[in-house]
Amino acid sequence: MGAAHPPPLSRGADRGPEHHPGGALHTLRRRLGTRLPIDVLATHYPDRHGRVLLNVALPHTADQALRRAAAATRQRPQDVLRRRVSEALARDDRTAPNS
């Protein structure tokens, strides 16, 4: 018997059974997580609120630091991460040379 191969990904397969982008990213991470070293998965198109959704796999130390920061501010870890990524992108936009 040969090694098992992952099922091919197609437009329908990458959505997952949840029928929403966040759930689809979670399902995709579970399917591919044991086969590929993936740090970040993202939706290609913004959701109905104009946001691109990310599914991030953090190293243990970064995850623990994020959880401590969330507990200290009484926020969810994903909300702290969202704020930090947004702030970093805003800083990057301000410092980027004009095109």
Structure report:
It is a single chain. Residues 1-17 have low confidence and may be disordered. This protein has a two-stranded antiparallel ribbon. With 99 residues, the protein is mostly helical. α2 crosses α3. Helix content is 45%, strand content 6%. It has 2 domains: 11-57, no CATH class; 59-99. The protein has helices spanning 21-32, 60-73, 77-95, and strands at 40-42, 54-56. The chain has 3 helices and 2 strands.
Tell me the layout of helices and strands.
Layout: H1 21-32, E1 40-42, E2 54-56, H2 60-73, H3 77-95
Antiparallel strand pairs: 1-2
Helix pairs in contact: 2-3
The percent range for helix content is 40-55%
- Shape, per Cα inertia axes: globular
Count of discrete domains: 2
Low-confidence stretches are 1-17
Helical region count? 3
**Hey, roughly how much beta strand do the residues contain?**
5-15%
List the secondary-structure elements in sequence, H or E: HEEHH
The main sheet comes to: 2 strands, antiparallel
* Major sheet strand order: 1-2
Class based on secondary structure composition and strand pairing: mainly alpha
Strand element count: 2
Gyration radius over CA = 17 Å
Distance between the termini: 56 Å
Look at the structure and give the mean pLDDT. Answer: 74
